Amino acid sequence: MTVIKVFSKPKLKNAIMIEGLPGVGNIGRVAAGYLVEEMKAKKFADLYSKWFFPFVMLHKNYRIHLLKNEFYYVKAKKKGQRDLVLLVGDCQSLSPQGHYEVAEKILDFVEKIGVKEIITIGGLATGEMESKKKVIGAVTDDNILKKYKKYKIDFEAGEKVGYIVGAVGLLLGLWKQRDKDGICLLGQTTGFPIVTDPKAAENVLDILTKILSIKIDMKKLDKKVKEMEYFIKKVETLQKRALMEITKGTEEKGEKGEEQTRYIG
Amino acid sequence: MTVIKVFSKPKLKNAIMIEGLPGVGNIGRVAAGYLVEEMKAKKFADLYSKWFFPFVMLHKNYRIHLLKNEFYYVKAKKKGQRDLVLLVGDCQSLSPQGHYEVAEKILDFVEKIGVKEIITIGGLATGEMESKKKVIGAVTDDNILKKYKKYKIDFEAGEKVGYIVGAVGLLLGLWKQRDKDGICLLGQTTGFPIVTDPKAAENVLDILTKILSIKIDMKKLDKKVKEMEYFIKKVETLQKRALMEITKGTEEKGEKGEEQTRYIG
Amino acid sequence: MTVIKVFSKPKLKNAIMIEGLPGVGNIGRVAAGYLVEEMKAKKFADLYSKWFFPFVMLHKNYRIHLLKNEFYYVKAKKKGQRDLVLLVGDCQSLSPQGHYEVAEKILDFVEKIGVKEIITIGGLATGEMESKKKVIGAVTDDNILKKYKKYKIDFEAGEKVGYIVGAVGLLLGLWKQRDKDGICLLGQTTGFPIVTDPKAAENVLDILTKILSIKIDMKKLDKKVKEMEYFIKKVETLQKRALMEITKGTEEKGEKGEEQTRYIG
Amino acid sequence: MTVIKVFSKPKLKNAIMIEGLPGVGNIGRVAAGYLVEEMKAKKFADLYSKWFFPFVMLHKNYRIHLLKNEFYYVKAKKKGQRDLVLLVGDCQSLSPQGHYEVAEKILDFVEKIGVKEIITIGGLATGEMESKKKVIGAVTDDNILKKYKKYKIDFEAGEKVGYIVGAVGLLLGLWKQRDKDGICLLGQTTGFPIVTDPKAAENVLDILTKILSIKIDMKKLDKKVKEMEYFIKKVETLQKRALMEITKGTEEKGEKGEEQTRYIG
């Protein structure tokens, strides 16, 4: 029960997918979401999954929608550009095996519609107030490293990073299993407190736009981030509350007063 | 292993399903349950699921039954009325993915037997002693909003509500995925302490009966609520106890004395 | 991956299954296990499941075996007796959905080999030092109540009992779904501290032997209980330890010293 | 979604599989890993599973790979030797049912390619500073005991051991279900603090090389252990951190400051 509802089938050639789901500093979500808006990308599919939270969001005060991941596309317009698929969404999977199942579903789908390479975007929370925030890279294989060496990506930070959790890492890992290429771009962020970090997202976008040979007006980023952040924080808060409610039965051991939070069902 | 046992197949035309499973303030359970009794609805199917608690209830002191959700129906009797399916039950799913699976099973079933629209009923715990308790609405789409605008439903509270957890929200969200219409009615309730709120259920019933063009004698509601509440509270208490027992193994870390609660197995 | 390994297919006629898996006071385990020994029942099948703990037990110091449930049978020898299937074992399922899946597997199997009725045995922990310990009964339907009314079974305790968790309840509940008959016998036990209660098991055996028209020498019960208890307690302790280890990763948050328990892997 | 990616199909005759996945004292991982290196075993397959942690590791600072288990082989070179399959890897399953599913997948695979017997290697954490560290054995059946009696394996420790958790035990238990033979070798280790214990691994290797009629230069063990340990500890630390992040949503209840650890996503 992970379902992709397809609205239209874009004809893509040698496409590249940019993934930006919610995560550390929401850097991927912001960067990919900004691309969607600035490039006027067209939505062509929604993904729903039993591995997401069992709740619906309210949109425009009265309209409900299931939690979902969304697929957008933009066709190449100039030489040097490539057809793009953009993957954004409300949330990632709740459980470890759900992460694998949703990631496989996504890859099955985009492989079929012509995606040849993927770029996943995430954040690296350093916990430190570093003055210079780098963009750290990790790749599926040595040959792809060569291709991306010319950009200002730090490929020496692996030791410091160690591992990459969730969709950002798993999509790339499972994509590699299919003998496909990909790169992950991690924007360094303080990560404390956990808030959306537009600066780190901009750092990633700077490199990403060069890779994609596109030009994006960065001026609206701050404004858009504020709009997005409002929604993202809402989802986060709601997920935490919802999770508390779902697990309440198991956690609750007679303590009173905990249940005074506002909730619905 | 979510199974629907069908006793009889009612012939329904353009039917509307009213969902009222246990939840906040048990508003859905009370409202739908009262409709079942007052309209002398006929039971035609039971749903069992491995996603429910692994225990049986005792009925009449000596007869056991599995936890279940029940389907009732009432045929339209007058012009302006519609055939009704009423969904009530002992419990909702234990786990997030179970919520999705049970909801899909329910929708598959009712879609086949002629249900065209659904109304889910829940509660909105405000945590405040509001004097006026409204009924808040959320819909699958704009066209259904128009249809329900004439009733005293607050469609402006989305911001405050944010999300709807469990069957109330998920049935509607997954129904929308099938390009079907539906509405959710949330009765405002203090939600503290968590008890059945017959007044909030009555507020929902006031609107619901108008929507359905039916007349229901509300006088017996208080009495019926007391009867239902006894059973509902029992299930709640039992679920909590049972959950503690099930998770005991994982939680228990040498603390003694915790195990003195009455239990069976 | 719940598998029943069948060694031999007994020809059974109108058989009755007695279930006695570990549980409250280990009353079912002791009662059914004693029947297996005293009646020299023959083992004909083993059930293994991914829903059990992922570990093996050591038998005779050096031989390993997977956790399992075991099926034994005894053919009727005299008029008034019935062919018996006895279900005993090391453990029950770890998770709620596992409980449902294992129970369904068991019922599929025994229904095929000729079981017509089941008797599940469990304990009712009262938490009180009652002087008189009753045997409490719960049935699938009114017609089976009539049949068992003549035995000294308390069918009035439902209110007090409320619900029956795990295999004892679920086997009966799912059996009822197949329109089959069954009864559950719960031996009252103090339940504190949780130890094997041979007296409660004897109380159940007194009634059970009458139901089955068999005679069992009760003299060896105490001795056998001591032998069984040693093994049962070992499994319990091991399961708790193992569970702690399995969940250690999630629970562990920097506390040191907790890991000093003896363990293997 | 437990997948074995096969690079080449070795022709094996009457092969024996040595399992050494991470576990207590990492004794199996070290012993089997050292055999892989010293015997210049060839890798022929990788196993990936949704039951592993949903993250990727970074290799050489910039190359990602999914968590995996790896299959190597060495052909017999002299009389008295047997074809070997060596199973090593990054991790074991996260969940109980995952343990069963991954183990079954492994056994299905190795049975098909000619493995007739398995030796699993683990550690027994005694919690005591024993001066003499034994190697404890457990077998699938009496006939295999006879075969291994001549080696310095303690087959009398079952009582003390009780049970064997995870792949070490489960592979053997499920293998026995297939009417196949196998033995488990547990190196005694203090187990506190939990670190890689090269001495215990050497004790197991001493016996294992005799069983396999091979000669291994033990001099490089300490050096290799240091290399391996660095990686193993990293994975352990990462898994714990990752697990905390994954479960953070459920655990987190308003405590601040906990989230200051360095993480990515």
Could you walk me through the main structural features you see in this protein, from its secondary elements to its overall organization?
Four copies of one chain form a homotetramer. By secondary structure, chain A is of the alpha/beta class. Chain A has a single domain, classed as PAC-like subunit (Rossmann fold). The first copy, chain A, is 37% helix and 26% strand. The first copy, chain A, has seven helices and twelve strands. In chain A, the strands form two sheets. In chain A, strands 1-3-6-7-2-8-11-9 form an eight-stranded mixed beta sheet, sandwiched between helices. A two-stranded antiparallel ribbon of chain A has the order 4-5. In chain A, helix 1 (27-38) crosses helix 6 (198-212) and helix 2 (96-112) packs across helix 5 (167-177). The first copy, chain A, is globular. The model of chain A is unreliable at 246-265 (pLDDT under 50). Chains in contact: A-B, A-D, B-C, C-D. Chains B and C meet through strand 4, strand 5, helix 7 and strand 12 of B and helix 2, strand 8, strand 9, helix 4 and strand 10 of C. Strand 4 of chain B pairs antiparallel with strand 10 of chain C, so a sheet runs across the interface.
Short description:
The structure is a homotetramer of 265-residue chains. Chain A is an alpha/beta fold and 265 residues long. The first copy, chain A, has 7 helices and 12 strands.
